[in-house]
Amino acid sequence: MMMMSTHSLNLLPKSFLLPQSPNFTSLSSKLRRRRQNLTIRSVFTGIVEEMGHVKELGSSNHGGFDLRIGAKVVLQDVKLGDSIAVNGTCLTVTDFNSQDFTVGLAPETLRKTSLEELERGSLVNLERALQPTSRMGGHVVQGHVDGTGVIVSMEEEGDSLWVKVGADGGLLKYIVPKGFVAVDGTSLTVVDVSDEEGWFSFMLVAYTQRNVVIPSKRVGQKVNLEVDIMGKYVERLLLTTMNKEKKG
Fold first, then answer.
1. pLDDT > 70: what percent of the chain?
2. Which of 40, 226, 228, 247 is deepest in the core (most CB within 10 A)?
């Protein structure tokens, strides 16, 4: 939505612009500066930029939990406070150098995501937050993990890999065949869903297998899941409408 708003400002007819009089000079300058500073934060596409590796993790001096990750691509323009998705979890950069960066983890993040299973040397998917000029190669991913699933099976077919993930009904209701789902931050197309058995499946082509962490995991391991936000909006709209009709 922010992208649309920013773009629409450029489409305003000249008659809508502020008069160029001394009384409006400072206000006009402020508006221009605000427009230049408009940026989309904490929104991702699910297209993994690189796989990093965990260098260190554990309790920090300030009483929290820190995760230090070795990387290259995501460090090219990193700044303190930037958002980077780590296995689909939106985290804030608290420190960095030319070879790695550090993010802080809250206890709730560890409880709700698969990051609790990480250890030194673990590979992680990394993606920087989307910018207004970025191409949308996957789908809108917020980096707000909805829950975790468990890898039920992994089967090869030619050079492709079939993956089946078990998930509870609260998440599975938002997952539909041919729809989107983010698994460990990777935007994937759902192939099939079984409500009765509690799983969904997807296929990874050879290129994707080489560039995301899922194939390196084992059956029984957790994966972070974020369902398509559109499904939640539709559900909320329908529930609100139905409640109004009942009251009316």
1. 83
2. 226
